[in-house]
Every structure is written in C-alpha cells, then in structure tokens.
UniProtKB/TrEMBL annotation:
The chain crosses the membrane at residues 36-54, 66-84, 90-110, 119-137, 143-162, 174-193, 205-223, 230-254, 260-278. It comes from the Bacteria. Keywords: Membrane, Transmembrane, Transmembrane helix. Residues 146-277 form the EamA domain. This is DMT family transporter. It is a multi-pass membrane protein.
Length: 283
C-alpha cells in the first residue's frame, strides 16, 4: 500500500508539472525554453540544499549518472522545444508512446519478462489515451517538433531506467540536476531553432520555480525512490495515468470542461493500468 501511495503521489507531481507548464506558457509570461532553464535551476537549487542539509554531503558520481543526466536534458529541452508548435494532445501521445517503447525495450533487454497481461494492459491504457488525445480535423505536423518530442520520450525513458540503479534517491536526483544546469545553458545557446523572445512576468517565473523546485525536484527524487521497487515495465505503464491526472487538474484549476470522451478514456486507462499491475490469483 505504501508503494502504491508513493507512486500515485509521484504521478500527481508529474501531472502538476504539465498543468504548471501549460499555465505559464498560456499566460505568455515566459518562453518555453526559458521555462525549462528556470525549472532546471530551481530544481537543482532545492535538491542541493536538501542533500547538504539531510545527507551532509554531495556526490556527483554513481551508477547510471551519465545516462540520467543525458536523459534529463533530452526530456526537458525536447519537451519544451516540441510544444512551441506541436498540438498538445498529439504531443502527449508521441511522448508517452515513446516512453512506453523505450522503457519496455530497455527492461526486456535487461532481462525482464513482462507477462502477456501487462502487454495487454499497456495496449488498452494507451488506446484510451489515443481515444482522448488524437487531434480532430486537419493535422499539421511539424517534423522537427515531432522529432523533439520523440527525443523527450526517449530521454525520460532513459532517465527512469537509470533511476532503478540509484543507491540514494535524493543524492542521485540532486547530482542529475546540478550537473545538467550548465549543460542545459550550453544547449540553449546552441539550439538550431530561433524563437521570438517573450517578456518574462512574475507569474511565469513563479510557476517555473514551483515546477522546478517542488513538482520536478522533489517529484523526481520521489520517482527515484519508488523506481527500484517497481519492474521497469510497471513503471512505464503507471505513467500513462499522467495525462489523465493532468487533464483532471486542468478541469479543477484551469476551468476546462469535463467531457464524456474524458470519462471513457479515463476508464480505459485506469483499467489498462490495473490489468497491467495487479497479480490475479490462479485457481
């Protein structure tokens, strides 16, 4: 039960990141890449303070560190760059589809053998997302932004798989963020796509700081806490609940409408996740 509650809290933190990101960018108070950088810096500051206060040390090395840092940067900047142009629903499908493929492939290559029930549940849950998020009408897909979202999905999958090797979740997450900060600033300067500058507002900056320090920094440390106790494929499927939670958050905090499609999709996603993770007794 404790593992279930911690995993649920982690998914809520991930969904809150999506809501905060959408709220900040929709207000026009900050640009996507600037949001990603402030989010990264705020997360690094929060985690470094906690690591020094609670562990009295800071460790830069550790198993899976390079993969985790690279994965974190790919995710944060691929995600921000993709949503400059990509439809949010299609973007979520590309992201979570890529995460599923990356984590299932990595887990299988690592020796995990998920049962047929888990494959079926993952397919059902992703089908529910496709039902809800597939764009209607004419779809204008930007290749470079779609590739950026695929990179983000691969990055998050790699970051999550690397977290299963973490000896101390807090120290590992703090090291990932602190190392990523200077590399992220270099990546920003080297981005091949030019974007119009956006005037920063206190609201935009505040939402980025909350996203970085709380729902990213602490949320990712919590994710690294539960990952070693979850099969890689279970961790992958559990994340399919994030868009549903994020949309529910949009309904509660951004006055978005509750629809029948959402109810049906939520039932399919939650049913698929349950089918994937629950062990059915054989009589």
């Amino acid at each position: 039960m404790r593992l279930f509650l911690l995993t649920t809290l982690t998914m809520i933190a991930f969904a809150a990141n999506s809501v905060l990101n959408r709220a900040a960018l929709a207000s026009g108070g900050i640009g996507a890449i600037e949001f990603a950088n402030i989010r990264l810096i705020a997360g690094a500051a929060m985690l470094a303070i906690l690591a020094l206060a609670l562990r009295r040390q800071f460790v830069f090395g550790g198993p899976g560190r390079i993969a985790a840092v690279v994965g974190l940067l790919l995710y944060l900047f691929g995600f921000s760059l993709a949503y400059v142009s990509l439809d949010s629903g299609l973007g979520a499908l590309i992201l979570f589809g890529t995460v599923q493929i990356t984590m299932f492939s990595g887990s299988v290559l690592g020796g995990e053998r998920p049962p047929a029930q888990r494959w079926l549940g993952a397919g059902l849950a992703f089908g529910g997302l496709a039902w809800l998020l597939w764009p209607t009408g004419q779809m204008d897909l930007s290749l470079i932004h779609a590739v950026a979202m695929i990179a983000a999905g691969i990055g998050w999958g790699v970051y999550s798989l690397a977290g299963r090797k973490a000896n101390d979740p807090l120290l590992a997450t703090a090291a990932n963020f602190v190392i990523a900060v200077p590399l992220g600033l270099i990546m920003t300067a080297a981005l091949p796509v030019q974007m119009d500058p956006v005037a920063w507002t206190n609201t935009g900056i505040g939402l980025a700081v909350i996203s970085g320090a709380i729902t990213s920094g602490l949320g990712y440390a919590l994710w690294y806490t539960v990952l070693p106790r979850l099969a890689g494929t279970v961790a992958a499927v559990a994340q399919l609940t994030v868009p549903i939670i994020a949309m529910l958050g949009g309904m509660l905090f951004l006055n978005e409408a509750l629809t029948l499609d959402f109810v049906i999709a939520a039932a399919l996603v939650l049913g698929g996740v349950t089918l994937s993770v629950v062990r059915w007794n054989k009589s």
